[in-house]
Amino acid sequence: MAYQNLISELKENILYVTINREKALNALNKDTLAELAEVIAFAGKTDDVRGVILTGAGEKAFVAGADIKEFSDYSGKQGEDLAKAGQDNVFNAIENSSKPFIAAINGFALGGGLELAMACHMRIASDHAKLGLPEVTLGLIPGYGGTQRLTQLVGKGKAIEMITTANMITASAAENIGLVNYVVPQPDLISKAEELLNVIKQRAPLAVSAAIKAVIAAVNNKDGYATEIEAFGKCFETVDFKEGVTAFVEKRKPNFSGK
Question: What is this structure's pTM?
Answer without folding.
Answer: 0.95
